[in-house]
Amino acid sequence: MECIESGSEHVVEQTGSENGTKEKSDIENDKSTDNSIGDRSQPAACKIAKSSAEIAPEQSNGITHETIEVKVIYNKKKYDVSVTTSSTIPEFKKQLQGLLGVPDSMQKLMFKGLLQDNQTISSSGIVKGSKIMLVGSTLNDVLAVSSVSKQDVAEMEKATTVKEPLCKQKIHRKVLDKGIPEDVMPGIKNLKESLPPVPLSGMLNKHGGKVRLTFKLENDQLWLSTKERTEKLPMGSIKGVVSEPIEGHDEYHIMGLQLGPTEASRYWIYWVPAQYVEAVKDAILGKWQFF
Fold first, then answer.
1. 90 to 105, 144, 253: CA distances (angstroms)
2. Under CATH, to which class is 59-135 assigned?
3. InterPro entries annotated for this entry (predicted)?
4. How far is CA 239 from CA 145, 172, 204, in A?
């Protein structure tokens, strides 16, 4: 780049005529009061100001809006996601909902612990390249677990109207009439115990198939396993839990997990040991603490 020198003194010498040009001393006074001229030791035309993008990330109201790349791990797959450091965790969940199809209300984000909704990307310590674990199920996954036929819906509506005990309703009798499973865990009535260190097993679902419950409290998940599949349900996706003792076998309960908005979307489990019923409800409904 070629710099052009400004020579104000030459201008004075050339313009000094009877037309009333300024004296050299007047020009010097003008120089001292004109801040735009600056230091004559370096030509002004050589000074190049950096753009705001080169000086610092974009700012608004004093908040830095820097975009970083992070890795989101979901279902054993890694996804590269761009996010603004000023984004709140709920905003980030909305972004992930659009990318992965997991409803924001059913998401749990893990980064050095469970991320809270009152945090931002920046305040949670997330930086470029950080790995964030997403725990959650799509709505289709949840509804698939609780597949309910039209006949089941009709029978349940009828039972609700007449307020029959669960164990006497036709929809449940077809499972209960098979009797207590041989490998079910022993039940104890009138006793409350904490969840055992092993999964609750030997129980039956509405099809009469074996079902097992595994509580992954560190991930805020309930693993619901059958012979065919294991569904990892976020605790937050279960809207409620109902249970009643089985008549004639009070040491066991019928339990319904509310997976959708209506009673028809309950996932029924039979022969749940009575001593663990309250612990199951506490774990699912959030009465345990995550450390």
1. 9, 26, 38
2. alpha beta
3. UBFD1 (IPR039120), UBFD1_C (IPR057455), Ubiquitin-like_dom (IPR000626), Ubiquitin-like_domsf (IPR029071)
4. 14, 21, 21
Taken in order 173, 242, 199, 275, is the CA torsion positive or negative?
Answer: negative
Which pairing describes strands 67-74 and 131-135: parallel, antiparallel, or unpaired? Answer: parallel
Alpha helices in 7-135 (DSSP H): 8-15, 24-33, 52-55, 89-100
What sign does the dihedral 115-117-120-123 (CA atoms) show? negative
- What's residue 101's pLDDT? 84
The pair of three-digit structure tokens given for residue 251, joined into one six-digit string: 């040491």
129-173 tens-digit pLDDT: 999 999 877 666 655 555 555 566 566 555 555 567 888 888 899
Residues carrying CATH 2.30.29, the chain: 141-284
Instruction: Quote the strand ranges of the chain, DSSP E.
Output: 59-60, 63-64, 67-74, 77-84, 108-110, 131-135, 200-205, 210-216, 221-225, 230-234, 240-246, 249-258, 266-273
Distance, CA of 256 to CA of 272 (rounded, Å): 10
For the record, the structure tokens of 282 come out as 């506490």
Task: Tell me how far apart the alpha carbons of residues 135 and 108 are, in angstroms, rounded to a whole number.
Answer: 5
CATH 3.10.20.90 occupies which residues in the chain? 59-135
Q: Which residues of 266-290 are buried (b: 16+ CB within 10 A; e: fewer)?
A: bbbbbbbbbbbbebbeebbeeebee
Torsion angle of alpha carbons 16, 20, 22, 24, nearest 10°?
40
Residues with Cβ within 8 Å of residue 241, at least 6 apart in sequence: 255, 256, 257, 258, 280, 281, 284, 285
